[in-house]
Amino acid sequence: MPVGLFRVCLLVITAIVNHPLFFPKENGTVPENTEEIIQKMKEREESLRLEQLRLEQEIADQEATQRALEKAAVVVEESKEEKVRWDMWTALSLVIFLLIELWRQDFQEGNWQDTGGEEDDMAVLGKAFQGVSLPDKAVLASFYEKRILGTTADMARMREMVEGFADDLLEALRSVCNRDADMEVEDCMGVGSMYENWRVRKPFVCDLIVPFAPPEPYCFCCQTWCSGDSFPPDEQGYGTIKVCRADEDATGCICDKTKLGEDMLCLLHSQVSSTRPSSEMEDLLCFKNTQYLDADQVMKWFQIAVTKAWNRISHKYEFDLSFSLLDSPGALKIKFKSGKSIAFNLTPVVQYENSDVYFISHFPRSSLAADVPSSTHWFLTFAVYERRFIQLVSKTLPANACHVSCLQILSFLHGKQCSLTGPSGLTNYHLKTVLLHLLQARPSQDWAPEKLEARLQDMLKFLEKCLHEKKLYHFFIGNGKVPAELGFPIIFQRAEPLNLFRPFVLRRDIYRKMVDTFHEMLRNMSALINEYTVHIPLAHTNGIRKE
């Protein structure tokens, strides 16, 4: 009890001592501290207001920036949509243009052989030919007899001599070759202007092609640009030759393409025969590490074989034989002790299937194969069919027809012009192609000897039209009107026409030179003919006799 009273008393005393009013003097500064606190609170309020204004400004700026970004995004999206619409219209316009161009080309290609059907059609062709007059019939007759017939009289004797020597040389070549390992050489064939009787310029050069085949058990499997395989545009007219075994398909057995298990064996090919060493294929004149025949290897082999053959038979002849041109591996020259010489070309070729189309390893004195894609690409020559076509058509023409005379005169004029202004891309093969087109397009009676002048005009106008359009189509490729008597392979008749002027489309310098040379030839034609023409009486009206 006393302890409880003591605790109550102590509590009362403590409350009285700590009461605020008990010591008034100590609490006299309270009003002053309150005013200072109020002032600080006002200052704090002002700073918070300023901070609020700053934050509101920043928020406004951010909102403006956001609106600007959204507006820019809308503009970009609209521009993209507009660009897409523009690209769509551009693409559509381009497609329409390409369709029109393809239709135009197809229309021209579908009528590419009908250019010489009417005299009126030929009369409107060619602006450069307007104002150019050919000499009359009498002057042309004198020119042909003096300049053409006078220089080609000994061609037959030269052909006979070259063919006889070539046969003897090839027989010796067969004797020096290993029949079990070397290529098998067949008999040679004469092609080109010397054997079509229209060559006029000296030196006369005989072109002979020599087919060859691989030794057993191998064979050649040929692929052309029109056989279904994809060939780039610059490889049209070319093909490849694959060396295969006789019991092997050209595309190869499935065992070469599929990995067989260790416990599986191909029933067609043993493990030994399925893998051939690279040295074996190189012995077969293939390109390194491939099965494709290499044209360069073939020409090296042929040169060595010809040299060995000549060493075997040289004692029988009283002349020397040598390779005449470094850039023409098959160019040979016979040199007599009197100083005279005879040149001829002996070029190895590969037969395409069972036809008279050949893969040629090298074009002598020609720019046709100047840009061969690679040494495994071989150009196809239709020279045998061209010779046969001229012979076939000649049987239906009038006596002493002027078709060969036209080609001889143009070849002479072109050669003379090139000797004055330098060589151009235009070749005698282009002139011959023009003649082949006109021979097929015009009736037989149009080639009578008295119509020489008119046919010369037709050839010049046709050639000028081709130069203007940069299109001169190969006569046989894509030509569905080739006479059936020739036995021409149908695969080439159904192929797309081959433009012989295509290499000049992108080479404007060569094309410009070719056109300038042609126009110069037109302007100088009368002067060149008169230079080799004797005086002709006005009453002279004799026709032109054919060689």
TrEMBL record:
Coiled-coil intervals: 38-72
Sample GO molecular function, one term: protein kinase inhibitor activity
Assigned GO CC terms: nuclear outer membrane; plasma membrane
Record's bilayer topology term: Single-pass type I membrane protein
Signal peptide span: 1-20
Segments passing through the bilayer: none
One Pfam family, short name: Mab-21_C
Keywords for this protein: Cell membrane, Coiled coil, Glycoprotein, Membrane, Nucleus, Signal, Transmembrane, Transmembrane helix
SMART domains according to UniProt: Mab-21
Cell compartment(s), UniProt: Cell membrane; Nucleus outer membrane
Domain Mab-21-like HhH/H2TH-like residue range list: 404-477
Similarity comment: family membership: Belongs to the ITPRIP family.
Function: Enhances Ca(2+)-mediated inhibition of inositol 1,4,5-triphosphate receptor (ITPR) Ca(2+) release.
Protein's name in the database: Inositol 1,4,5-trisphosphate receptor-interacting protein
